[in-house]
Structure formats: structure tokens, C-alpha cells
Amino acid sequence: MARVVKNIVTQGLSGMLGDQIVFSQRRKGQTFVSVAPQSPSGPASAAQVAHRKRFQQTTFYARNAAQDPATKALYAEKAKEDEVSVFNVVVADFMKAPDIQSVDLTDYTGRIGDPIRIVVEDDFAVERVQVRIENGDGTLVEEGDAAPQANSSEWVYVARANNASLVGDKLTVTVNDHPGNTTQETQTL
Predict the structure, then answer these.
(1) Element (H, E) at 81
(2) pTM above 0.70, yes or no
(3) What is the chain's Cα-based Rg?
(4) How far apart are CA 64 and CA 45, in angstroms?
(5) Distance of alpha carbon 39 from alpha carbon 169, whole angstroms
């Protein structure tokens, strides 16, 4: 796929040329040129069927989100900033789950008030970060929500229970975004 910038011949072109080349308009007025899609030569693989199903779910979510005034308003600013439609922003958000960049346990010693710092990213916004701490035998020590830090991708969970022995304990971080995508990471302390 090629991107064409400020070319008087191709600027604004959209569509297929001779069943070989496709011109499309993307964000910020860029023209993209790609090879025309080919018809499938055989039955779809399991991965292709799963991807198609996921994209159907994405489209259903995006259409409903674009019709709901509150959800549409939520995505409208990002759409304007990126110079794309609200539908495109919603589709991108639905297709990408949040990413846990790091879990910093440096200051966690098992005492009430100890912070656990979590850096998470999402293409749109992270809705919730949950922390769960279990003893080695699986018994719950504590769980709760981390708090977002101002102007940052960092969230902080403050310990609410004393934990005498950290050896073999498991810490699980669960992150959710607006469409309901979930990412989870478990570490052994």
C-alpha cells in the first residue's frame, strides 16, 4: 500500500482503477493506493471465520454507539482530532484491547497504604483498572480498583490490607476499556 501526499493527479481519488488498483481517502486528506482485493480461492480458514465474526461484532457495536448520543459524544472529540468519523474511532477502539505496559511493585511491602503503580494504554481510553492479590494457596488477601493519575497513563492501587508474607502470592491486574475489552496480567510476588 502506498500513501500519496500532495499529488495533483491523485488527490481526492477514490475507487478502483482497471480491477488492479484501489484509491482510498483516509484521515487528514491522505490518498492511499493499494492492490485491488482478490476473490478467495477456497473456503475460509478458522482464523478468517473468527476474524469475520469479530468484525461483525465490531460493526454492530459501532452502529449502536453512533446512535447513542452519550457514546457518540464520548468519541466525537477524538474523531474530530484525528479527522475521521466517529464510526471509525469506535471501530478502532472496539478492535484494540487495552495494553498493560508495566506493573511497579517496588513500593509494595504488604502493608496498608503501600502503592502499586500500573501503566496502561489504550487507543481511546481505559475505563477501569482492578487489582487482586491472593496468597500462594489461592485465598484472597484483597482486591479493588486502582485510581487514575492526572494527565497520565498511570493508575495507582493503594493496599488496604496487611499481607504478612508475600512469598508465592499472586497479583492480578485486570484492565477494561469502554467497549468492554479486557486485558489481564498475573505476576507471582
Answers:
(1) helix 69-82
(2) yes
(3) 23
(4) 29
(5) 53
Mapped onto helix, strand or coil, the DSSP state of residue 169 is: coil
Task: Cell numbers for 83, please give them.
Answer: 479527522
Distance between CA atoms of residues 97 and 6, nearest Å: 34
Closest CA to 27 of 91, 80, 71, 67: 80
Report pLDDT digits (tens) over 73-130. 888 888 888 888 888 888 889 989 999 999 999 999 999 999 999 999 998 889 999 9
Phi, psi of 177 (to 5 degrees): -110, 180
* pLDDT tens-digit readout, 30-78: 777 788 777 778 888 899 999 899 889 988 888 888 788 888 888 888 8
Which residues lie below 8 Å from residue 46, measured CB to CB, with a gap of 6+?
none
Give, in degrees to the nearest 5, the angle at Cα 126 between 121 and 127. 165
The residue with greater pLDDT, 150 or 100, is 100
143: closest CA among 123, 173, 121?
173
Cα separation of the two ends of the chain: 46
60 SS3 class: helix
